[in-house]
Amino acid sequence: MARAAAKVAVTVALPSMLWPVMDGRKELVIEAAMLDELFAEIKSRHPRLHTHLFTERGHLRTHVLILLEGMNVRWLDDWSAPFDAPKQVTILQAVSGG
Amino acid sequence: MPAVTLVIGTKKGLFLAESPDRKSKWNITGPMMKGWEIYGVTPDPRHGRRLYAAVGSFVYGSTIHVSDDAGRTWRQLENNPRYPEDAGFQVKQIWTVVPGRADEPDVLYAGVDEGGLFISRDSGTSWQEVKSLNHDPSRVEWQAGAGGLCCHTIMPDPKRKERLYAAISAVGLFRSDDGGETWASKNEGIPQPAPSPKYKYIGWCPHKLVFDVADSNCLMRQDHMGVFRSRNAGDSWERIETGLSSGFGFPIAADPRTGSYFVIPLEKDEYRYCPDGALRVYRTRDGGDSWQALTKGLPQTDAFTGALRDAMAVDGLDPCGVYFGTTSGQLYASADGGDSWRQIPGALPRILSVTAVAG
Questions:
Q1: Which of A65, A85, B51, B70 is the most buried (most CB within 10 A)?
Q2: pLDDT tens for residues B178-192?
Q3: What whole-number distance in Å separates Cα of residue A59 and Cα of residue B346?
Q4: How far apart are CA B42 and CA B263, in angstroms?
């Protein structure tokens, strides 16, 4: 039986427009083993934040840019790939959002 | 405590303007919710100084925020109106949140784009879609107006428990007499700007409505096609534009003490700014039979601006204070029922909504 991937600390930096949603916090630290799990944790623990990142259909909002260690997550093939070390995630307003 | 607090929703945040006497000095604070579009702010007098705000972003979507101190602090609701997955459409923007009647203190209504009505029976903790309206068979032919396919005005009848009105841009005004179980189109007498080939009861564009202050069977309606009045709960409408510079416009407001109504005409739908470059508010004191231009203190030259449907408010005091904000970010106040006006200093972002909270 394969062992479950180990959770790591993921530091999530928020854009300034979303600081008030999180009571002024500019970043969160969430334990997660992979991107899918990170987003599930955000949905579970921070639903007020999650609704601003994902549509009601569960799709990443068109003009939200999420970077995993500088890489646009939209270009990643697999959001269930295990993290190998603590990660930095940055959420930004995409240029397409004006 | 200020005599009046204006809660100003703009395209880039929420501002407060406060004055001790509604005349001499206004103090502006903000922006709060910096960068967010504040579509509509509605008082909930059932709960003290509570306000609800419909807040949105092109990037981050739309949610409802609530304040219990007349707009000084806000918190986002955890759950917001959202269509189920099988609905076929999504909530692009929440336009308005409206409290239910005084005897149903936990009821809230929300109007959204893509055109729909939601109800909460637990003060916004959870929301349910009003499917009877949102999934009307005619929906296949609903077409968005310039501002979107928005349910922008919701009016529970204060005198009739089961009666509710909902206005959807470019679709029409609907009335329910059974608490939202069924709906009827209430637009007869108004020209149809967007007729539907199959469903003859849709294709109107109400902009804003208010109840008559004394009789909720009587409604005043600023429509895309003009200004109208109904004396039979919307069953039929008559045009009431004598004296107006134009029938096109967006906001309409009512002074609850005197029964005066106010509109801000714009030069036709193609242009949407003041006729002749003159910013005028019009008032009727005879229920719409005639209108008078109010210009003292308002610019009468080179004023090519306008006001959006939720950008005018009254404070209900005696004499009535009337306030409006423009698409150019100017804010105007009258402390004498519209007889005279002054601009509140400041250059704000495009003003989407103005709400007056007395005291």
A1: B51
A2: 999 999 999 999 999
A3: 40
A4: 19
For the whole model, what pTM was predicted? 0.95
| β-bridge mates for residue A64, sequence order | A93
Convert the pLDDT of each residue in B310-359 to its tens digit.
999 999 999 999 999 999 999 999 999 999 999 999 999 999 999 999 98
The DSSP call for residue B49 is: T
Distance from CA of B130 to the nearest CA of A (A): 17
Interchain CB distance below 8 Å, B60 and A64: yes
Partner residue facing B59 (CB), from A16, A56, A97: A97
Q: What is the pLDDT of residue A1?
A: 52
- A40 by DSSP, 3-state: which? helix
For the four alpha carbons of A69, A71, A74 and A76, in that order, the dihedral sign comes to negative
For residue B145 the two structure tokens come to: 């107006």
Closest partner CB to B58 (pick from A48, A57, A98): A98
Looking at the complex, report in whole angstroms how far the Cα of residue A5 sits from the nearest Cα belonging to chain B.
31
Q: Which ranges in B206-306 belong to alpha helices (H)? A: 268-271
A84 CB-side CA count, 13 A: 1
Number of residues that this document lists for chain A: 98
Residue B238 CB-half CA count within 13 A: 9
- Cβ–Cβ < 8 Å for B222, B205: no
Q: Which residues of A touch B12 (CB under 8 A)?
A: none
Q: What is the mean pLDDT of the segment spanning B38-42?
A: 97
